[in-house]
Backbone:
RNA sequence: GCCAGGGUAGCUCAGUGGUAGAGCAGGGGACUCAUAAGCCCUUGGUCGGGAGUUCGAAUCUCCCCCCUGGCACCA
Protein backbone atom coordinates (compact mmCIF):
# COMPACT_ATOMS: atom_id res chain seq x y z
CA UNK A 1 0.00 0.00 0.00
CA UNK A 2 1.45 3.37 -1.00
CA UNK A 3 2.40 5.78 1.72
CA UNK A 4 -0.07 8.56 2.37
CA UNK A 5 0.95 12.18 2.05
CA UNK A 6 -0.01 13.61 5.42
CA UNK A 7 -0.24 17.38 5.76
CA UNK A 8 -1.37 19.46 8.70
CA UNK A 9 -1.86 23.11 9.52
CA UNK A 10 -1.78 24.79 12.87
CA UNK A 11 -5.16 24.53 14.54
CA UNK A 12 -6.73 27.93 15.05
CA UNK A 13 -7.65 29.32 18.41
CA UNK A 14 -11.38 29.78 18.81
CA UNK A 15 -11.10 32.96 20.77
CA UNK A 16 -11.86 35.29 17.89
CA UNK A 17 -12.85 35.24 14.25
CA UNK A 18 -10.48 34.23 11.45
CA UNK A 19 -8.32 36.79 9.67
CA UNK A 20 -6.30 36.81 6.48
CA UNK A 21 -3.33 35.04 8.08
CA UNK A 22 -5.48 32.06 9.01
CA UNK A 23 -6.81 31.95 5.47
CA UNK A 24 -3.34 32.09 3.95
CA UNK A 25 -2.06 29.12 5.90
CA UNK A 26 -5.04 26.94 5.09
CA UNK A 27 -5.04 27.80 1.42
CA UNK A 28 -1.30 27.09 1.25
CA UNK A 29 -1.87 23.67 2.81
CA UNK A 30 -4.82 23.07 0.53
CA UNK A 31 -2.80 23.88 -2.58
CA UNK A 32 0.02 21.55 -1.54
CA UNK A 33 -2.50 18.84 -0.68
CA UNK A 34 -4.22 19.26 -4.04
CA UNK A 35 -0.88 19.05 -5.81
CA UNK A 36 -0.29 15.67 -4.21
CA UNK A 37 -3.77 14.50 -5.11
CA UNK A 38 -2.97 15.61 -8.66
CA UNK A 39 0.04 13.31 -8.51
CA UNK A 40 -2.30 10.49 -7.51
CA UNK A 41 -0.90 10.29 -3.99
CA UNK A 42 -3.14 9.32 -1.14
CA UNK A 43 -3.58 12.51 0.80
CA UNK A 44 -4.59 13.07 4.38
CA UNK A 45 -5.06 16.76 5.07
CA UNK A 46 -5.77 17.60 8.70
CA UNK A 47 -6.80 20.98 10.02
CA UNK A 48 -9.06 22.19 12.78
CA UNK A 49 -9.47 24.33 15.85
CA UNK A 50 -8.02 24.66 19.31
CA UNK A 51 -10.95 25.14 21.63
CA UNK A 52 -9.64 25.01 25.17
CA UNK A 53 -7.80 27.47 27.36
CA UNK A 54 -8.04 30.53 29.45
CA UNK A 55 -8.78 33.13 26.80
CA UNK A 56 -11.70 31.10 25.56
CA UNK A 57 -12.92 30.68 29.11
CA UNK A 58 -12.66 34.43 29.67
CA UNK A 59 -14.26 35.43 26.38
CA UNK A 60 -17.09 33.00 27.00
CA UNK A 61 -17.63 34.38 30.47
CA UNK A 62 -17.68 37.90 29.09
CA UNK A 63 -20.44 37.07 26.62
CA UNK A 64 -22.29 35.09 29.27
CA UNK A 65 -22.36 31.70 27.54
CA UNK A 66 -20.74 28.43 28.50
CA UNK A 67 -17.34 27.85 26.86
CA UNK A 68 -18.68 24.88 24.93
CA UNK A 69 -21.27 27.07 23.23
CA UNK A 70 -18.87 29.92 22.71
CA UNK A 71 -16.36 27.75 20.85
CA UNK A 72 -19.08 26.15 18.81
CA UNK A 73 -19.98 29.50 17.29
CA UNK A 74 -16.42 30.48 16.46
CA UNK A 75 -15.63 26.99 15.20
CA UNK A 76 -18.46 27.37 12.73
CA UNK A 77 -16.97 30.59 11.44
CA UNK A 78 -13.72 28.84 10.68
CA UNK A 79 -15.36 25.82 9.09
CA UNK A 80 -17.61 28.06 7.04
CA UNK A 81 -14.67 30.08 5.80
CA UNK A 82 -12.79 26.97 4.69
CA UNK A 83 -15.81 25.85 2.78
CA UNK A 84 -16.09 29.18 1.02
CA UNK A 85 -12.38 29.11 0.22
CA UNK A 86 -12.56 25.57 -1.17
CA UNK A 87 -10.13 24.32 1.45
CA UNK A 88 -10.62 20.59 1.08
CA UNK A 89 -9.44 18.83 4.20
CA UNK A 90 -9.86 15.16 5.02
CA UNK A 91 -10.15 15.39 8.77
CA UNK A 92 -11.24 18.10 11.13
CA UNK A 93 -9.65 18.45 14.55
CA UNK A 94 -11.63 19.81 17.46
CA UNK A 95 -9.76 19.59 20.72
CA UNK A 96 -12.93 19.17 22.80
CA UNK A 97 -13.73 15.87 21.12
CA UNK A 98 -13.59 12.60 23.05
CA UNK A 99 -11.10 10.82 20.81
CA UNK A 100 -8.67 13.69 21.26
CA UNK A 101 -9.17 13.76 25.00
CA UNK A 102 -8.42 10.05 25.22
CA UNK A 103 -5.14 10.35 23.36
CA UNK A 104 -4.04 13.38 25.36
CA UNK A 105 -4.78 11.65 28.64
CA UNK A 106 -3.18 8.42 27.49
CA UNK A 107 0.04 10.21 26.58
CA UNK A 108 0.10 12.18 29.82
CA UNK A 109 -0.40 9.04 31.86
CA UNK A 110 2.36 7.21 30.02
CA UNK A 111 4.80 10.06 30.49
CA UNK A 112 3.81 10.38 34.13
CA UNK A 113 4.38 6.67 34.70
CA UNK A 114 7.74 6.98 32.99
CA UNK A 115 8.77 9.78 35.31
CA UNK A 116 8.77 12.34 32.51
CA UNK A 117 6.15 14.41 34.28
CA UNK A 118 6.58 15.50 37.87
CA UNK A 119 4.91 17.72 40.42
CA UNK A 120 6.52 20.87 41.75
CA UNK A 121 5.73 24.08 43.55
CA UNK A 122 6.46 27.48 42.16
CA UNK A 123 6.08 30.89 43.71
CA UNK A 124 5.54 34.23 42.06
CA UNK A 125 3.44 37.35 41.77
CA UNK A 126 -0.15 36.85 40.77
CA UNK A 127 -2.64 39.36 39.42
CA UNK A 128 -6.07 38.63 40.79
CA UNK A 129 -7.82 40.82 38.26
CA UNK A 130 -6.09 39.22 35.23
CA UNK A 131 -6.04 35.76 36.79
CA UNK A 132 -2.45 35.11 35.82
CA UNK A 133 1.05 34.97 37.19
CA UNK A 134 3.19 37.92 36.27
CA UNK A 135 6.73 37.78 35.01
CA UNK A 136 9.37 40.44 35.01
CA UNK A 137 8.23 41.39 31.55
CA UNK A 138 5.10 42.84 33.08
CA UNK A 139 6.97 45.16 35.37
CA UNK A 140 7.24 48.86 34.64
CA UNK A 141 10.68 50.42 34.23
CA UNK A 142 10.57 51.36 37.92
CA UNK A 143 10.21 47.69 38.82
CA UNK A 144 6.60 47.93 39.98
CA UNK A 145 3.57 46.24 38.47
CA UNK A 146 1.29 48.79 36.82
CA UNK A 147 -2.24 49.62 37.88
CA UNK A 148 -3.66 47.62 34.95
CA UNK A 149 -2.91 44.43 36.88
CA UNK A 150 -5.02 45.46 39.87
CA UNK A 151 -4.14 43.79 43.13
CA UNK A 152 -0.94 41.76 42.85
CA UNK A 153 -0.05 39.22 45.50
CA UNK A 154 2.70 36.72 46.15
CA UNK A 155 1.41 33.21 45.62
CA UNK A 156 2.62 29.66 45.69
CA UNK A 157 1.17 27.21 43.24
CA UNK A 158 1.58 23.53 42.66
CA UNK A 159 1.83 22.36 39.06
CA UNK A 160 3.01 19.53 36.83
CA UNK A 161 6.12 19.79 34.72
CA UNK A 162 7.42 17.92 31.70
CA UNK A 163 11.14 17.09 31.71
CA UNK A 164 11.93 19.12 28.65
CA UNK A 165 15.56 19.90 29.37
CA UNK A 166 16.37 16.21 29.58
CA UNK A 167 15.89 16.00 25.82
CA UNK A 168 17.83 19.07 24.83
CA UNK A 169 20.90 17.17 23.64
CA UNK A 170 18.77 14.82 21.63
CA UNK A 171 17.06 17.71 19.87
CA UNK A 172 20.37 19.35 19.04
CA UNK A 173 21.75 16.18 17.54
CA UNK A 174 18.54 15.59 15.61
CA UNK A 175 18.68 19.08 14.11
CA UNK A 176 22.32 18.62 13.19
CA UNK A 177 21.59 15.32 11.52
CA UNK A 178 18.54 16.35 9.57
CA UNK A 179 19.11 19.47 7.52
CA UNK A 180 15.56 19.79 6.24
CA UNK A 181 13.78 19.32 9.55
CA UNK A 182 12.59 22.89 9.12
CA UNK A 183 11.95 24.78 5.89
CA UNK A 184 13.18 27.39 4.99
CA UNK A 185 16.68 26.60 6.22
CA UNK A 186 17.22 29.92 7.98
CA UNK A 187 14.35 29.00 10.27
CA UNK A 188 16.15 25.83 11.21
CA UNK A 189 19.18 27.95 12.13
CA UNK A 190 16.92 30.12 14.24
CA UNK A 191 15.52 27.06 15.96
CA UNK A 192 18.97 25.56 16.55
CA UNK A 193 20.08 28.78 18.23
CA UNK A 194 17.02 28.79 20.42
CA UNK A 195 17.48 25.18 21.49
CA UNK A 196 21.03 25.89 22.60
CA UNK A 197 19.71 28.42 25.05
CA UNK A 198 17.03 26.08 26.35
CA UNK A 199 16.95 25.59 30.07
CA UNK A 200 14.32 24.46 32.52
CA UNK A 201 11.29 22.26 32.17
CA UNK A 202 7.84 22.95 30.81
CA UNK A 203 4.82 23.69 32.98
CA UNK A 204 1.95 21.69 31.53
CA UNK A 205 -0.89 22.12 34.00
CA UNK A 206 -3.23 24.62 35.59
CA UNK A 207 -5.16 24.09 38.78
CA UNK A 208 -8.87 23.91 38.12
CA UNK A 209 -9.43 26.80 40.48
CA UNK A 210 -7.83 28.99 37.80
CA UNK A 211 -8.75 27.18 34.63
CA UNK A 212 -11.24 24.39 34.23
CA UNK A 213 -11.90 24.61 30.47
CA UNK A 214 -9.46 21.94 29.46
CA UNK A 215 -8.55 18.29 29.60
CA UNK A 216 -8.19 16.86 33.10
CA UNK A 217 -4.88 15.29 34.06
CA UNK A 218 -5.50 11.54 34.29
CA UNK A 219 -3.39 11.29 37.44
CA UNK A 220 -4.71 14.35 39.27
CA UNK A 221 -8.28 15.51 38.90
CA UNK A 222 -7.51 18.87 40.48
CA UNK A 223 -5.71 19.96 37.31
CA UNK A 224 -6.26 20.37 33.60
CA UNK A 225 -3.46 20.24 31.07
CA UNK A 226 -2.40 23.57 29.73
CA UNK A 227 -1.99 24.31 26.01
CA UNK A 228 0.91 22.16 24.83
CA UNK A 229 -0.16 18.58 25.40
CA UNK A 230 -3.67 19.57 24.45
CA UNK A 231 -3.18 21.54 21.25
CA UNK A 232 -0.07 19.92 19.76
CA UNK A 233 -1.33 16.39 20.25
CA UNK A 234 -4.08 17.02 17.71
CA UNK A 235 -1.64 16.21 14.90
CA UNK A 236 -1.59 12.57 15.91
CA UNK A 237 -4.84 12.12 17.81
CA UNK A 238 -6.90 12.86 14.71
CA UNK A 239 -4.74 10.64 12.55
CA UNK A 240 -5.52 7.45 14.42
CA UNK A 241 -2.76 7.41 17.01
CA UNK A 242 -3.43 5.07 19.89
CA UNK A 243 -1.86 6.16 23.19
CA UNK A 244 -2.01 2.61 24.52
CA UNK A 245 0.87 1.57 22.27
CA UNK A 246 4.25 2.93 23.22
CA UNK A 247 6.16 2.17 20.05
CA UNK A 248 5.41 3.42 16.60
CA UNK A 249 5.52 -0.07 15.14
CA UNK A 250 2.71 -1.21 17.36
CA UNK A 251 0.49 1.69 16.29
CA UNK A 252 -2.54 0.84 14.18
CA UNK A 253 -1.86 0.84 10.46
CA UNK A 254 -4.23 3.76 9.87
CA UNK A 255 -1.73 5.87 11.74
CA UNK A 256 1.47 4.27 10.48
CA UNK A 257 0.37 4.65 6.86
CA UNK A 258 0.08 8.39 7.29
CA UNK A 259 2.81 9.47 9.66
CA UNK A 260 5.10 11.42 9.49
CA UNK A 261 3.43 14.64 8.42
CA UNK A 262 4.41 17.79 6.67
CA UNK A 263 3.32 20.41 9.17
CA UNK A 264 2.59 23.93 8.01
CA UNK A 265 2.93 26.56 10.69
CA UNK A 266 3.49 30.30 11.00
CA UNK A 267 6.85 31.67 11.97
CA UNK A 268 5.47 32.77 15.34
CA UNK A 269 4.89 29.24 16.57
CA UNK A 270 8.10 27.56 15.48
CA UNK A 271 10.02 28.60 18.60
CA UNK A 272 9.32 27.23 21.07
CA UNK A 273 6.01 25.48 20.48
CA UNK A 274 6.59 23.25 17.45
CA UNK A 275 10.35 23.33 17.08
CA UNK A 276 11.04 22.51 20.70
CA UNK A 277 8.02 21.31 22.68
CA UNK A 278 6.37 19.27 19.97
CA UNK A 279 9.50 17.55 18.67
CA UNK A 280 10.56 16.70 22.20
CA UNK A 281 7.10 15.45 23.09
CA UNK A 282 7.17 13.09 20.11
CA UNK A 283 10.64 11.92 21.01
CA UNK A 284 9.57 11.31 24.61
CA UNK A 285 6.62 9.17 23.60
CA UNK A 286 8.77 6.97 21.41
CA UNK A 287 8.91 8.44 17.91
CA UNK A 288 12.25 7.64 16.26
CA UNK A 289 14.25 10.36 14.50
CA UNK A 290 13.27 9.25 11.03
CA UNK A 291 9.63 9.65 12.01
CA UNK A 292 9.82 13.29 13.01
CA UNK A 293 7.52 15.63 11.12
CA UNK A 294 8.91 18.19 8.73
CA UNK A 295 8.01 21.77 9.59
CA UNK A 296 7.21 24.18 6.78
CA UNK A 297 7.29 27.66 8.25
CA UNK A 298 5.48 30.44 6.43
CA UNK A 299 5.73 34.19 6.86
CA UNK A 300 3.14 36.81 7.62
CA UNK A 301 0.99 39.20 5.73
CA UNK A 302 1.70 42.66 7.02
CA UNK A 303 -0.37 45.74 6.50
CA UNK A 304 1.72 48.57 5.12
CA UNK A 305 4.67 47.03 6.89
CA UNK A 306 2.89 46.80 10.22
CA UNK A 307 2.01 43.59 11.96
CA UNK A 308 -1.63 42.68 11.86
CA UNK A 309 -3.23 42.78 15.26
CA UNK A 310 -6.58 43.27 16.84
CA UNK A 311 -5.34 46.07 19.03
CA UNK A 312 -4.11 48.00 15.99
CA UNK A 313 -7.56 47.55 14.45
CA UNK A 314 -6.09 46.56 11.12
CA UNK A 315 -7.43 43.03 10.83
CA UNK A 316 -8.36 41.99 7.31
CA UNK A 317 -11.48 39.85 7.23
CA UNK A 318 -11.20 37.19 4.54
CA UNK A 319 -14.97 36.77 4.36
CA UNK A 320 -15.37 40.35 3.25
CA UNK A 321 -12.78 39.89 0.52
CA UNK A 322 -14.46 36.72 -0.70
CA UNK A 323 -17.76 38.53 -0.89
CA UNK A 324 -16.23 41.38 -2.86
CA UNK A 325 -13.93 39.50 -5.20
CA UNK A 326 -14.73 35.81 -4.89
CA UNK A 327 -12.89 32.89 -3.42
CA UNK A 328 -10.65 32.25 -6.42
CA UNK A 329 -9.45 35.85 -6.52
CA UNK A 330 -8.44 35.65 -2.89
CA UNK A 331 -6.79 32.26 -3.29
CA UNK A 332 -4.87 33.53 -6.27
CA UNK A 333 -3.67 36.62 -4.48
CA UNK A 334 -2.63 34.76 -1.34
CA UNK A 335 -0.70 32.20 -3.33
CA UNK A 336 0.90 34.45 -5.91
CA UNK A 337 1.98 37.55 -4.07
CA UNK A 338 4.07 36.04 -1.29
CA UNK A 339 7.15 33.85 -1.44
CA UNK A 340 6.71 30.78 0.78
CA UNK A 341 8.56 31.43 4.02
CA UNK A 342 8.82 35.19 3.50
CA UNK A 343 6.62 38.01 4.70
CA UNK A 344 4.59 40.14 2.33
CA UNK A 345 2.49 43.25 2.43
CA UNK A 346 -1.21 42.79 2.08
CA UNK A 347 -2.98 45.27 -0.15
CA UNK A 348 -6.45 45.13 -1.60
CA UNK A 349 -5.34 47.24 -4.54
CA UNK A 350 -2.63 44.73 -5.27
CA UNK A 351 -5.17 41.90 -5.13
CA UNK A 352 -7.20 43.70 -7.79
CA UNK A 353 -4.10 44.47 -9.80
CA UNK A 354 -2.94 40.88 -9.92
CA UNK A 355 -6.41 39.54 -10.59
CA UNK A 356 -6.95 41.87 -13.52
CA UNK A 357 -3.50 41.50 -15.00
CA UNK A 358 -3.00 37.75 -14.59
CA UNK A 359 -6.43 36.19 -14.41
CA UNK A 360 -8.71 38.48 -16.39
CA UNK A 361 -6.41 39.96 -19.04
CA UNK A 362 -3.96 37.15 -19.54
CA UNK A 363 -5.51 33.77 -18.72
CA UNK A 364 -9.22 34.55 -18.94
CA UNK A 365 -8.83 36.44 -22.15
CA UNK A 366 -6.68 33.70 -23.67
CA UNK A 367 -9.47 31.22 -23.12
CA UNK A 368 -12.05 33.63 -24.40
CA UNK A 369 -10.27 34.64 -27.58
CA UNK A 370 -9.30 31.05 -28.38
CA UNK A 371 -12.85 29.78 -28.10
CA UNK A 372 -14.18 32.76 -29.98
CA UNK A 373 -11.86 32.19 -32.91
CA UNK A 374 -12.60 28.48 -32.93
CA UNK A 375 -16.29 29.21 -33.19
CA UNK A 376 -15.97 32.07 -35.61
CA UNK A 377 -13.65 30.27 -38.03
CA UNK A 378 -14.38 26.59 -37.43
CA UNK A 379 -17.80 26.31 -35.80
CA UNK A 380 -16.14 25.29 -32.57
CA UNK A 381 -14.43 22.18 -33.94
CA UNK A 382 -10.66 21.95 -33.58
CA UNK A 383 -8.82 19.70 -35.98
CA UNK A 384 -5.36 18.17 -35.77
CA UNK A 385 -3.23 19.38 -38.66
CA UNK A 386 0.42 19.77 -39.50
CA UNK A 387 3.33 18.67 -37.35
CA UNK A 388 4.41 19.45 -33.82
CA UNK A 389 3.32 22.67 -32.23
CA UNK A 390 5.90 25.06 -30.82
CA UNK A 391 3.66 25.17 -27.77
CA UNK A 392 4.18 21.46 -27.11
CA UNK A 393 7.79 21.91 -26.10
CA UNK A 394 6.94 24.95 -23.97
CA UNK A 395 4.20 23.02 -22.21
CA UNK A 396 6.56 20.17 -21.42
CA UNK A 397 9.06 22.63 -19.95
CA UNK A 398 6.27 24.18 -17.94
CA UNK A 399 5.23 20.85 -16.44
CA UNK A 400 8.81 20.01 -15.52
CA UNK A 401 9.45 23.36 -13.86
CA UNK A 402 6.07 23.29 -12.16
CA UNK A 403 6.94 19.96 -10.54
CA UNK A 404 10.34 21.26 -9.56
CA UNK A 405 9.11 24.31 -7.72
CA UNK A 406 6.24 22.46 -6.09
CA UNK A 407 8.76 20.03 -4.66
CA UNK A 408 10.20 23.01 -2.83
CA UNK A 409 6.74 24.32 -1.88
CA UNK A 410 7.32 27.45 -3.98
CA UNK A 411 3.73 27.93 -5.01
CA UNK A 412 4.34 31.51 -6.09
CA UNK A 413 7.00 30.28 -8.50
CA UNK A 414 4.64 27.69 -9.95
CA UNK A 415 2.14 30.46 -10.59
CA UNK A 416 4.67 32.65 -12.29
CA UNK A 417 5.64 29.75 -14.61
CA UNK A 418 1.99 29.28 -15.46
CA UNK A 419 1.65 32.96 -16.25
CA UNK A 420 4.74 32.89 -18.43
CA UNK A 421 3.19 30.08 -20.42
CA UNK A 422 -0.04 32.00 -20.73
CA UNK A 423 1.89 34.94 -22.14
CA UNK A 424 3.66 32.57 -24.52
CA UNK A 425 0.27 31.48 -25.81
CA UNK A 426 -0.93 35.04 -26.22
CA UNK A 427 2.23 35.95 -28.07
CA UNK A 428 1.82 32.88 -30.24
CA UNK A 429 -1.59 34.13 -31.30
CA UNK A 430 -0.20 37.53 -32.26
CA UNK A 431 2.60 35.98 -34.27
CA UNK A 432 0.30 33.57 -36.08
CA UNK A 433 -2.40 36.19 -36.70
CA UNK A 434 -5.24 33.72 -37.16
CA UNK A 435 -7.53 36.53 -38.34
CA UNK A 436 -5.31 36.74 -41.42
CA UNK A 437 -5.06 32.98 -41.85
CA UNK A 438 -8.83 32.82 -41.82
CA UNK A 439 -9.02 35.01 -44.92
CA UNK A 440 -6.64 32.83 -46.90
CA UNK A 441 -8.07 29.43 -47.93
CA UNK A 442 -4.61 28.18 -48.82
CA UNK A 443 -3.50 28.54 -45.22
CA UNK A 444 -6.42 26.71 -43.76
CA UNK A 445 -4.20 23.99 -42.33
CA UNK A 446 -2.10 26.52 -40.46
CA UNK A 447 -5.22 27.89 -38.83
CA UNK A 448 -6.39 24.43 -37.78
CA UNK A 449 -2.97 23.67 -36.46
CA UNK A 450 -2.82 26.69 -34.20
CA UNK A 451 -6.38 26.57 -32.93
CA UNK A 452 -5.90 22.95 -31.95
CA UNK A 453 -2.64 23.76 -30.19
CA UNK A 454 -4.23 26.60 -28.26
CA UNK A 455 -7.09 24.43 -27.07
CA UNK A 456 -4.58 21.81 -26.02
CA UNK A 457 -2.50 24.41 -24.20
CA UNK A 458 -5.57 25.56 -22.31
CA UNK A 459 -6.30 21.97 -21.35
CA UNK A 460 -2.81 21.68 -19.86
CA UNK A 461 -3.23 25.00 -18.10
CA UNK A 462 -6.48 23.79 -16.57
CA UNK A 463 -4.78 20.70 -15.15
CA UNK A 464 -1.93 22.66 -13.58
CA UNK A 465 -4.13 25.48 -12.38
CA UNK A 466 -6.57 23.15 -10.68
CA UNK A 467 -4.57 22.98 -7.46
CA UNK A 468 -4.62 26.74 -7.04
CA UNK A 469 -7.95 27.67 -8.58
CA UNK A 470 -10.06 24.51 -8.46
CA UNK A 471 -13.26 26.18 -9.49
CA UNK A 472 -11.78 28.17 -12.37
CA UNK A 473 -10.04 25.05 -13.65
CA UNK A 474 -13.36 23.24 -13.76
CA UNK A 475 -14.89 26.13 -15.67
CA UNK A 476 -12.08 26.02 -18.21
CA UNK A 477 -12.82 22.34 -18.71
CA UNK A 478 -16.49 23.08 -19.07
CA UNK A 479 -15.81 25.67 -21.74
CA UNK A 480 -13.37 23.38 -23.49
CA UNK A 481 -16.01 20.68 -23.21
CA UNK A 482 -13.70 18.12 -21.58
CA UNK A 483 -13.78 16.12 -18.36
CA UNK A 484 -13.03 18.12 -15.23
CA UNK A 485 -11.10 15.44 -13.42
CA UNK A 486 -7.50 16.35 -12.93
CA UNK A 487 -4.39 14.23 -12.89
CA UNK A 488 -0.82 15.32 -13.39
CA UNK A 489 -0.39 12.69 -16.08
CA UNK A 490 -3.03 14.53 -18.11
CA UNK A 491 -0.75 17.56 -18.27
CA UNK A 492 1.25 15.75 -20.95
CA UNK A 493 0.78 17.23 -24.39
CA UNK A 494 -1.61 15.51 -26.75
CA UNK A 495 -4.66 14.68 -24.69
CA UNK A 496 -7.21 16.51 -26.77
CA UNK A 497 -8.99 14.28 -29.33
CA UNK A 498 -9.08 15.21 -33.01
CA UNK A 499 -12.24 16.96 -34.22
CA UNK A 500 -13.05 17.99 -30.71
CA UNK A 501 -16.04 20.26 -30.28
CA UNK A 502 -15.34 23.14 -27.94
CA UNK A 503 -17.90 24.77 -25.70
CA UNK A 504 -19.08 28.36 -25.82
CA UNK A 505 -16.86 31.14 -24.47
CA UNK A 506 -17.96 32.88 -21.32
CA UNK A 507 -15.69 35.43 -19.63
CA UNK A 508 -13.98 33.38 -16.93
CA UNK A 509 -12.62 36.15 -14.74
CA UNK A 510 -14.66 39.31 -15.27
CA UNK A 511 -12.43 42.30 -14.73
CA UNK A 512 -12.70 44.05 -11.39
CA UNK A 513 -13.47 47.62 -12.27
CA UNK A 514 -11.63 50.04 -10.05
CA UNK A 515 -13.61 53.22 -10.05
CA UNK A 516 -12.67 53.91 -6.51
CA UNK A 517 -11.51 51.74 -3.70
C1' G B 1 22.14 43.28 24.14
C1' C B 2 22.16 38.37 21.34
C1' C B 3 20.30 35.50 17.10
C1' A B 4 17.75 35.61 12.46
C1' G B 5 15.33 37.92 8.12
C1' G B 6 14.95 42.31 5.18
C1' G B 7 16.60 47.33 3.11
C1' U B 8 17.58 46.71 -5.45
C1' A B 9 13.12 51.04 -10.76
C1' G B 10 6.73 54.71 -8.58
C1' C B 11 4.75 49.55 -6.31
C1' U B 12 5.77 44.10 -5.31
C1' C B 13 10.06 41.42 -5.70
C1' A B 14 14.19 38.18 -8.37
C1' G B 15 19.29 38.45 -8.75
C1' U B 16 25.32 35.90 -3.98
C1' G B 17 32.21 38.25 -8.08
C1' G B 18 32.15 39.86 -14.42
C1' U B 19 28.65 45.52 -18.67
C1' A B 20 21.88 46.39 -13.19
C1' G B 21 16.51 42.33 -13.99
C1' A B 22 10.96 40.70 -14.00
C1' G B 23 5.82 41.70 -13.20
C1' C B 24 2.53 45.77 -12.37
C1' A B 25 2.01 51.02 -13.02
C1' G B 26 3.72 55.21 -16.74
C1' G B 27 4.92 56.55 -22.20
C1' G B 28 4.87 55.22 -27.60
C1' G B 29 3.51 51.91 -31.78
C1' A B 30 1.37 48.31 -35.05
C1' C B 31 -2.90 45.13 -34.97
C1' U B 32 -8.21 43.45 -34.13
C1' C B 33 -9.93 36.97 -32.62
C1' A B 34 -10.98 38.74 -27.44
C1' U B 35 -13.08 40.57 -20.93
C1' A B 36 -11.18 48.73 -24.36
C1' A B 37 -8.19 42.57 -23.20
C1' G B 38 -3.54 40.84 -26.09
C1' C B 39 1.37 41.83 -28.71
C1' C B 40 5.86 44.86 -29.69
C1' C B 41 9.00 48.91 -28.18
C1' U B 42 10.12 52.20 -24.21
C1' U B 43 10.94 55.96 -19.64
C1' G B 44 12.76 54.77 -14.89
C1' G B 45 17.59 52.68 -10.11
C1' U B 46 24.54 56.66 -7.21
C1' C B 47 21.38 48.12 -5.68
C1' G B 48 20.23 51.73 2.91
C1' G B 49 25.20 54.67 4.21
C1' G B 50 30.59 54.42 4.68
C1' A B 51 35.33 51.96 4.37
C1' G B 52 38.06 47.72 2.60
C1' U B 53 39.54 43.12 -0.44
C1' U B 54 39.73 42.50 -5.89
C1' C B 55 41.54 43.71 -12.58
C1' G B 56 36.24 43.83 -11.33
C1' A B 57 31.26 44.01 -5.64
C1' A B 58 24.09 44.47 -5.41
C1' U B 59 27.05 39.95 -4.68
C1' C B 60 32.95 38.93 -0.13
C1' U B 61 34.99 41.55 4.78
C1' C B 62 34.38 45.38 8.58
C1' C B 63 31.62 49.55 10.76
C1' C B 64 27.04 52.25 10.97
C1' C B 65 21.62 53.39 10.10
C1' C B 66 16.43 51.76 9.43
C1' C B 67 12.31 47.89 9.37
C1' U B 68 10.51 42.86 11.07
C1' G B 69 10.54 38.44 14.22
C1' G B 70 12.50 35.47 18.33
C1' C B 71 15.19 35.39 22.88
C1' A B 72 17.32 37.91 26.87
C1' C B 73 18.15 42.05 30.02
C1' C B 74 15.82 45.84 32.47
C1' A B 75 13.75 44.03 39.12
Residues:
Amino acid sequence: MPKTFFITTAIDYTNSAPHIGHAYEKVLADVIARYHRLKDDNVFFLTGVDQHGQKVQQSAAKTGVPPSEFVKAITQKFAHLWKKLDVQYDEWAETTSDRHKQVVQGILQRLFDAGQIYNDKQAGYYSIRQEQFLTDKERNPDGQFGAEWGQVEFREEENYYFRLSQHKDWLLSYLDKRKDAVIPDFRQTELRNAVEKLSGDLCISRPKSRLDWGIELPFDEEFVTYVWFDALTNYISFAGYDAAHSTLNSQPSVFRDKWPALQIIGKDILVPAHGIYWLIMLHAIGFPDDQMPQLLVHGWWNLSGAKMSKSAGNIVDPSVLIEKYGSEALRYYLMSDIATGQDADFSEERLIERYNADLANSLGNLLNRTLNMAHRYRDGVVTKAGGDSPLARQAADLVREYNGVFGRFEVHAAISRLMEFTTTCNTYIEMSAPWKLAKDPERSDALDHMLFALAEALRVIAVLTSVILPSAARQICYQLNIRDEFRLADADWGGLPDKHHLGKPVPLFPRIETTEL
Observations:
- Chain A is about 45% helix and 15% strand.
- The first strand of chain A starts at residue 4 and ends at 9.
- Chain A has a mean pLDDT of 90.
- The longest helix of chain A spans residues 348-378.
